[in-house]
Specification:
- The structure is a homodimer.
- With about 425 residues, chain A is α/β, with parallel strands linked by helices.
- Chain A has three domains: about 150 residues, Rossmann fold; about 160 residues, Dihydrodipicolinate Reductase, domain 2, CATH 3.30.360; about 90 residues, ACT domain (Alpha-Beta Plaits), CATH 3.30.70.260.
- Chain A contains 15 helices and 16 strands.
- In chain A, the strands form two sheets. In chain A, strands 7, 8, 9, 10, 11, 12, 13, 14, 15 and 16 form a ten-stranded mixed sheet that branches.
- In chain A, strand 2, helix 3 and strand 3 form a beta-alpha-beta unit.
- In chain A, helix 1 runs parallel beside helix 3, helix 1 packs across helix 13 and helix 5 runs parallel beside helix 6.
- Chains A and B meet through helix 1, helix 2, helix 7, strand 10 and strand 11 of A and helix 1, helix 2, helix 7, strand 10 and strand 11 of B.
């Protein structure tokens, strides 16, 4: 008779509940794919009400209030960490690995901050540590980079990997709402947390980008080292101007290996050309575009959050580990050697095209003076449009796209211009990614 | 010391050459991912010039003119079948499996026609039979359906899985060319074969759809059983009208399990709404949109053909099998039990919205008569536009979108209308997929 693989689930919020449902409802198919029975042995949560929901589905599952008890149980082979946060989750995952249990986690903050040490610990203990759900929810980007592109060299990864930010920018694009109003609406619709800081400032995307960069380029970087900019400063006017220029504004995360050898890693809102599939990823969807040396462009999109999508990714990981475990296959190695440079390019050294929006006095000669100053700094303008500001008499807006140039130079030039009386408010800059 | 896994490659055309390059150039990374050395032991091709190219890259590879010698060699663990066609490839793959060798193939026709028997033979011999490159080239759709969505129930699969057809329809959309001219340009650009029949008639997409339907729904269908329609009858005017209605015309393959239990499988050009990511898949790109019960919408796109993309998928399969083989893991089972209905819904029973384009006499009363006849058949019109035909004096075009209705009824009604003197040419019908 086949040996049984037993799962212990730590943290039974909406995602945990989704995992329970997936494992119980599709037990037959899963057993067939694993090659033997997969049993949900124990579930831990501090909230008895959540455990009641599990009990109602299957009275034979052990229900526990302390997640650390799961790790200590003999009848658990795979520990699923869904409690979130860094410190407690770190201790829990370490305890599981020390007890020679495989681990599945959806915890991007944990992996971004402590991944290196945890993967080393997993390997030392001969255990698997899987995390498909940590990046872009339902999108199997970890599996695709790790397995499908195993024989290729990845040139770049660009992604919309924070659904909250994309939902907010999409609402602003669709109904012209200001950022604050779009945020409020997103909170009411359940697409933003009560405290949305980590999402809208790009912090969450930075966590995920650190993980992607490690996989794609062997980068060993902490999220704090990644140049990061949130979406708070995007104005509905920017979205409108960008659209007229043929672009959409999306919350992007970018990772590429530059020809200098340095890593170009950054998180910021960006103008994306209409012809780019990323421009059409709307609402809470996530997407990842990968450029491979052999494979060319590859594009994946799907729901980045939510119980169903995330639980499906977690369950896919559990099935993989269970199948390998039953087969006696060795664990997957994540800490691939990296002979590449670990230096992240400073954002001032970035070479890019830029979108600029100036608020100026509505007087003759202003545009000529502005163009002159940009020209003096070696910044060449590709497209330009000037509008009278509807709201503010006596002022006008000038929006433009620059040709390729260096960010440091643009910033210096804008700083100088904003110190003259040409502009009536600080100039907005948004990078173009294409 | 690790045991070596040895690969024998049968057929060294452009894809085979890509596989050779991938295996040789990335040998270090591949070895690390496999967990031991992966060696390209032998390559077979009837054309000595092709073997010379391999020899130039690595003089230690055995070069053979007869592919059947590869399967007989003791120093080959994995046979890669890239000779194409059905009969010889079938014999070759059977011989390899009988000799207890794992097989990787990119041959969609072979799998669509003989897949059932070949997978059974592979399983009986304890061998793997992988085929990621057979469907949608670089897009890891087989892996995603089989592994990432292992815990989900798939509701529908819709795809652009013939790059030639998509290239032609895209050209027609971009420059207004007629089908014949766009085909000629595609042939000159290398995006269509000298004999493009299998691509433009939907036959190639039917092969791939049969494979996808087997994976997603346990369907046991032959390509010949799938209602299939090519892109030859699409007119530039259809593309223009569709665009004005807010749709793009794409060469689609559709598979879904209907609520009646029957399978809805079909290949045809279709109007796709602008908001659907499939509408933005341009040129030779392929794409697959999967709807899962838990995971929601999932979308993948990439190059569907070409040496690099296809070779990367083949190499990914080789790496997977080599890793599992070194680990002593059991082979993957493809022949999942299917308790579902195997009946394919007749196209006359399809319930859909339709795009119709009538060529009519440019006289008063014609539109009223036409609408009346459609109304009598219970077909209700959602949108309509009438244009005078520039080319043909005295005639006009009427394009419309219908509300949901049954195809049999629409066909009957159009047949009756085309037998009156209201229309001056047969009416064009294109299904809407949304």
């Amino acid at each position: 008779m086949d040996r049984e693989i037993r799962v212990g689930l730590c943290g039974c919020g909406v995602i945990g509940e989704g995992v329970v449902t997936a494992l119980l409802q599709h037990a037959d198919v899963i057993g067939e794919r694993v090659g033997g029975p997969l049993k949900l042995a124990a579930v831990a949560d501090k909230d008895p009400a959540r455990l009641d929901i599990v009990r109602a589905q299957d009275p034979n599952i052990s229900l526990i209030d302390d997640a650390f008890e799961i790790v200590a149980r003999d009848d658990v082979d795979i520990v699923v960490e869904l409690i979130g946060g860094v410190e407690v989750a770190d201790r829990l995952v370490r305890a599981a690995l020390d007890a020679k249990k495989h681990v599945v986690t959806a915890n991007k903050a944990l992996l971004a901050e402590r991944g290196g040490a945890l993967f080393a610990l997993a390997e030392a203990n001969g255990c698997d540590l899987y995390f498909e759900a940590a990046v872009a929810g339902a999108i199997p980007v970890i599996r695709v980079i790790r397995e499908s592109l195993a024989a290729d060299r990845i040139l770049s990864v660009r992604g919309i990997i924070n659904g909250t930010s994309n939902y907010i920018l999409s609402s602003m694009a669709n109904d012209g709402a200001a950022f604050a109003d779009a945020l409020k609406a997103a909170q009411q619709a359940g697409f933003a947390e009560a405290d949305p800081t980590l999402d809208i400032t790009g912090g969450d995307a930075g966590h995920k980008l650190a993980i992607l960069a490690a996989l794609a380029f062997g980068a060993r970087v902490l999220p704090g080292e990644i140049p990061t900019e949130g979406i708070e400063s995007v104005d509905p006017r920017d979205i409108q101007y960008a659209r007229n220029f043929g672009y959409a504004i999306r919350p992007l995360a970018v990772a590429q290996r530059l020809q200098t050898g340095a890593l170009d890693l950054r998180v910021h809102p960006a103008l994306v050309p209409e012809g780019d599939p990323l421009a059409h990823v709307d609402g809470a969807l996530n997407a990842v575009a990968i450029q491979g040396a052999m494979v060319g462009p590859s594009f994946l999109s799907g729901l980045g959050a939510g119980a169903g999508p995330t639980a499906t990714s977690v369950a896919g990981d559990i099935i993989d580990i269970a199948k390998n475990s039953l087969a006696g296959a060795p664990v997957r190695r994540w800490n691939l050697s990296s002979d590449g440079d670990q230096k992240i390019q400073a954002i001032a050294d970035l070479s890019s095209r830029y979108y600029l929006r100036f608020s100026v006095r509505d007087e003759s000669g202003v545009l000529a003076a502005l163009s002159g100053k940009l020209g003096d700094s070696g910044i060449s303008i590709e497209k330009m449009v000037q509008d009278v500001d509807a709201g503010d008499a006596g002022t006008a807006s000038i929006a433009m796209l620059t040709h390729n140039t260096h960010e440091g130079g643009v910033r210096d030039s804008l700083h100088a211009i904003d110190n003259t009386d040409l502009t009536t408010a600080p100039t907005h800059l948004i990078r173009i990614v294409e």
